[in-house]
Amino acid sequence: MDDLQYGTRNKRGDWTPNRPVEPAPLFDFPPRIKAILKWLPHYFLPWNVIFAVSAVAYWAWIIPPVESMQSIRLGWIGWLYAVNALCVLLFYGAFELHLYVLRRQENRFKYNGKFPAEQRSKAFWFESQNIDNILRTFLSGVTIWTGVEVVMLWAYANGHAPWLSFAERPWTLALVALAVPVIHEFHFFCIHRLIHTPLLYKWVHSVHHNSVNPSPWSSLSMHPVEHLLYFATVFYHLILPSNPVVMLYQLHYAGFGAIPGHVGFDKVEVGENGLVDSHAYAHYLHHKYFEVNYGDALIPLDKWFGTWHDGSPEGEARMQQRYRKRKEKLAARKARMEARGATK
Ligand SMILES: [Zn+2]
Ligand SMILES: [Zn+2]
């Protein structure tokens, strides 16, 4: 596959897509029906279908009977942790093995020409991005994921969360299921913006940003506080008219859904000529520039707040202008304070 048909590679070996990232047309005003219809398959395929099907499979085969979840017992909680850990190992591991260990598509479509294993850094535990990221994923990531899941299942089992049946309220549940990615985007943007405030960034979010060149294991490499905020997205289902399966879809959208954004490749080659879009470029730019793209543009929140970078030269210019303005503001404030100090 010739990735130079789709983008360019610079001297450092970094690949950049030709086309800028387009925000989803879902919230455009006036509505662009044709654009929405053209975009709609991407809303489902392939990622969201995987997360939704995995939720159904969990409900069918993994989640214990409701009666046993009425009380908090180590047995079923340990079982859930084990299954979640195994699924993460298999799902994340498949991307890692294919793209980073066996390097089946070498550096085709890879945003950053370097592979994390080639660079050691003191920012990471054991100076290794991979070891650091894997430990954080399983120590706090899967643990807090499971903890949040247990709280929700316990709440359903004890009648503390609205539980609609698919037989009686199929349309309501279909609507809530359709809104799952939108809920995630809204929640993620809010908590992400929050942890980019100076104090929380230093204390919490810098852990995730240590991976400037993200790879699959970076997806859930976060500070435990960020894990908690991130997975708290399922708590919306404590008030929404919902169902445990839809809640699990929301949870898997966060847990397994973190991976496409951190895969580091724009497209994953499948077979001879197949290409699957990762839609990772917006979030890759966030890891590269830190203060752009707090969301993934399903809702154009970054556009509305002026932090959108679509990868184009115009996007770059907008970002530089924002940085310049902020610098000027800081310099002006400093000058004012100095002047005030001099007159005292
Ligand atoms: Zn990230
Ligand atoms: Zn961030």
UniProtKB/TrEMBL annotation:
The keyword Transmembrane applies. Pfam families: FA_hydroxylase. One of its GO terms (cellular component) is membrane. The keyword Phosphoprotein does not apply. Residues 179-307 form the Fatty acid hydroxylase domain. GO terms for molecular function: iron ion binding; oxidoreductase activity. Coiled coil: none annotated. Keywords: Membrane, Transmembrane, Transmembrane helix. GO terms for biological process: lipid biosynthetic process. It is found in: Membrane. Its main location: membrane. The chain crosses the membrane at residues 43-64, 76-102, 138-157, 169-191. This is Desaturase.
